[in-house]
From TrEMBL:
PANTHER family: GLUCOSE-6-PHOSPHATE 1-DEHYDROGENASE, GLUCOSE-6-PHOSPHATE 1-DEHYDROGENASE G6PD. It comes from Roseateles asaccharophilus. One of its GO terms (biological process) is glucose metabolic process. It is an enzyme of class 1 (oxidoreductase). Pathway: Carbohydrate degradation; pentose phosphate pathway; D-ribulose 5-phosphate from D-glucose 6-phosphate (oxidative stage): step 1/3. NCBIfam families: PRK12853.1-3, zwf. This is Glucose-6-phosphate 1-dehydrogenase. One of its GO terms (cellular component) is cytosol. One of its GO terms (molecular function) is NADP binding. Residues 183-477 form the Glucose-6-phosphate dehydrogenase C-terminal domain. It catalyses: D-glucose 6-phosphate + NADP(+) = 6-phospho-D-glucono-1,5-lactone + NADPH + H(+). It comes from the Bacteria. NADP(+) binds at residues 43, 86-87, 142. Residues 6-181 form the Glucose-6-phosphate dehydrogenase NAD-binding domain.
Length: 481
């Protein structure tokens, strides 16, 4: 299958840090279809060879095992081209059309690796230039909008140019192998589904923690915050995959229909429930990995009076028969104690304990990063003189070791899916808008709250109120157990 892949924002950080290295890995693994051309477009003027040299320099920053040899890079770079393009100029889109018309590739993928405020302009210009024929697909990076209204406006413009089947709204978390395993875990095995309901599960916790601060992304992050950056998209997508009903098939829309049902069933927030069930925080100075780090307000280009949250913890429920009364706890933040992304399913304790001592409830831990695996925590007899005492034991599966030869990175998987036209791991417009509809009352309540975010020390697990949020129902976060 021949393809043309165009990166708008071809000299931007996303392109050279994530997208081009992911494409190279697909090339190295022999998974990139032959007969493809990769075109980077940006405002700078440079010939193909100069761009390839520029890209080669950037590839030297790729971690060791993924860094190409000179020979590998030369073979990969032979498919890479560059064109200067001013995104505001209609004639430049005509030039792009001429370049794409030099041959009739089976598929054309237009990847908008630009600031989201340019999405509508680019899509309108693509439509005016006739670059929306059926073989064309457009990939939209997150964040898609700043709130519900802006997301709806972007989707309105996208739908006026492209069909829904041509629009690939990317959430790179969905490309992680461990996230893909959520579907296999639930619907490819008979073991867990009979227990996957309110009678067996006490609560579910989703943690997306980062030990890094905002770094050089201060201006972007300050206009975004943790709720928009992580909860509205990544965390809610994980929640839908954990809570969804079994789809009728592995078809993209069958899956996305069930995810949308979960989003619509989430308990809506009110000003009172935001105050009770949502904790927002902002990191101050502290110590991470033994090194002193500055607080958020002292980061480069962050306003000294910023009220932007770098941490969110919240409690919600899925209001349907399967999950009624089961708390779902979501937590994300920067400058936390560790880089850790996981989903913890806490099962209910046995109804009548017959063994003395601590009978801890069973847990299923789905590890997303830095490890990728599955851990089932059980109780077992120690085998002492009397045999009654129980101790916690774990069944631990490391997916990276079990499937080492077949593992691919998130962007590698998603780029290959976009080229192939597989929509399963991309977000549909109604999903995305419903997620905004659910978080918007939180944003509205915060806008009216004079208190602002609570502070927490860098290197901690967030404000103490986050622990209290879980403790009031007799539970605790995984690291506190």
């Amino acid at each position: 299958m021949s393809f043309d892949l165009v990166f708008f924002g071809g000299t931007g950080d996303l392109t050279w840090r994530k997208l081009m290295p992911a494409l190279f890995q697909a090339f190295r693994h022999g998974k990139l279809p032959e007969g493809g051309r990769i075109l980077a477009v940006a405002r700078d003027e440079m010939p193909d060879e100069r761009y390839r040299e520029w890209l080669k320099e950037r590839f030297r920053e790729v971690e060791g095992s993924k860094r190409p040899s000179d020979e590998e890079f030369e073979r990969f770079a032979a498919q890479v081209f560059y064109r200067r393009m001013d995104l505001s100029q209609p004639e430049h889109y005509q030039r792009l059309k001429e370049w794409l018309s030099e041959r009739q590739a089976d598929t054309v993928v237009l990847y908008l690796a630009t600031s989201p405020h340019l999405f509508t302009q680019i899509c309108e210009q693509l439509g005016a230039a006739g670059l929306n024929e059926p073989r064309v697909r457009v990939v939209l990076e997150k964040p898609l909008g700043h709130d519900l209204a802006s997301a709806q406006q972007i989707n309105k413009v996208v739908r006026s140019v492209f069909s829904e089947s041509q629009a690939f709204r990317i959430d790179h978390y969905l490309g992680k192998p461990s996230v893909q395993n959520l579907m296999a875990l639930r619907f490819g095995n008979a073991l867990f589904e009979p227990l996957w309901h309110r009678e067996s599960i006490a609560n579910i916790q989703i943690t997306l923690a980062e030990s890094l601060g905002v770094g050089t992304r201060g201006p972007f992050y300050d206009g975004t915050g943790a709720l928009r950056d992580m909860v509205q998209n990544h965390a809610l997508q994980l929640l839908t995959m954990i809570a969804m009903e079994p789809p009728s098939s592995n078809d993209a829309d069958a899956i996305r229909d069930e995810k949308l049902k979960v989003l619509r069933a989430l308990k809506p927030f009110t000003p009172d429930s935001v105050a009770r069930d949502v904790v927002r925080g902002q990191y101050r100075s502290g110590t991470v990995d033994g090194k002193a780090v500055v607080g958020y307000l002292d980061e480069a280009k962050v306003p000294a009076d910023s009220r932007t949250e770098t941490f969110v913890a919240l409690r919600t429920e899925v209001q349907n028969w399967r999950w009624a009364g089961v708390p779902f706890y979501l937590r994300t933040g920067k400058r936390l104690a560790a880089r850790d992304a996981q989903i913890v399913v806490n099962f209910r304790p046995v109804p009548h304990p017959i063994f003395p001592g601590a009978n801890r409830p069973n847990q299923l831990v789905i590890k997303l990063q830095p490890e990728d695996g599955l851990e089932l925590r059980l109780q077992a007899a120690k085998g002492g003189a009397h045999g009654e005492a129980l101790a916690p034991v774990s069944l631990d599966l490391d997916f990276d070791k079990a499937f080492a030869a077949d593992r691919v990175g998130a962007y590698e998987r998603l780029l290959l899916d976009a080229i192939a036209g597989r929509l399963n791991l991309f977000v549909r417009s109604d999903e995305q808008e419903q997620a905004w509809r659910w978080v918007e009352p939180i944003l509205d309540a915060w806008a009216q709250d004079p208190a602002g975010p609570r502070t927490y020390s860098a290197g901690s697990w967030g404000p103490p109120a986050a622990s209290a949020l879980v403790a009031r129902e007799g539970f605790s976060w995984a690291e506190e157990q």
